[in-house]
Each structure stands twice: as structure tokens, then as C-alpha cells.
């Protein structure tokens, strides 16, 4: 497991990231920091934006995909 995988798992376990993937919107990066890697997302990169309980989070595409994959893995372990 990579350090980024471990970071995502820890964020899910602490409640910083939800255990389910909400509806997401895609747009041009606007300089916000990624909720996974904390690196700014600037144009021409795209950001994935989600809102959970009135909190907004943005992700790089790869970081969003990692979050989605970790959630799927956790669900598979629970079944």
C-alpha cells in the first residue's frame, strides 16, 4: 500500500473523507488544494469537486480515483 493509499484510508477512518462517494462535478482547476495530496490544482489541470454536508472538497483526478478505489476496497472487506 502506498503512502497516499494509507493517507486516504486514514482520512476515511477519521471522518475527514466520507466512506461513500458523493456526486461530483468536473471543472478547470482554480487553485484549491486537493483534499488528498494537498497540492494546488491549477489550470490546465482539471479538478473534481464534491460537496458533503455543506463542505466542499476538490481533488486531482488521480486522487479522486484513489479515494474511490480505497472506498471500494473497504466495502469489499466489510462484505
3D structure, described in words:
The protein is built from 2 helices and 3 strands; from the N terminus they run αβββα. The chain is an alpha+beta fold and 79 residues long. It has a 3-stranded antiparallel beta sheet. Helix 1 (3-14) crosses helix 2. The longest helix is centred in the C-terminal third of the chain and has 18 residues, at 61-78. The radius of gyration is 12 Å and the shape is globular.
Secondary-structure map:
Layout: H1 3-14, E1 24-28, E2 46-52, E3 55-59, H2 61-78
Antiparallel strand pairs: 1-2, 2-3
Order of helices and strands: HEEEH
Helix fraction, binned, reads 25-40%
Regions with pLDDT < 50 over 5+ consecutive residues?
none
Alpha-carbon distance between the termini?
21 Å
Oligomer: single chain
Reading side by side through the largest sheet, how are the strands ordered? 1-2-3
Looking at the structure, what is the overall shape?
Answer: globular
Tell me how many strands there are: 3
Mean pLDDT: 92
Q: Assess the beta-strand content as a share of residues.
A: 15-25%
Helix and strand content put the structural class at: alpha+beta
Number of helices: 2
Give the biggest sheet: 3 strands, antiparallel
Our Rg estimate from Cα atoms comes to 12 Å
Amino acid at each position: 500500500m502506498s503512502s497516499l493509499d494509507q493517507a486516504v484510508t486514514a482520512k476515511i477512518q477519521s471522518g475527514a473523507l466520507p466512506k461513500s462517494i458523493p456526486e461530483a462535478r468536473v471543472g478547470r482547476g482554480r487553485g484549491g488544494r486537493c483534499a488528498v495530496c494537498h497540492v494546488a490544482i491549477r489550470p490546465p489541470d482539471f479538478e473534481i469537486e464534491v460537496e458533503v454536508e455543506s463542505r466542499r472538497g476538490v481533488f486531482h483526478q488521480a486522487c479522486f480515483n484513489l479515494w474511490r478505489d480505497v472506498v471500494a476496497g473497504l466495502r469489499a472487506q466489510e462484505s
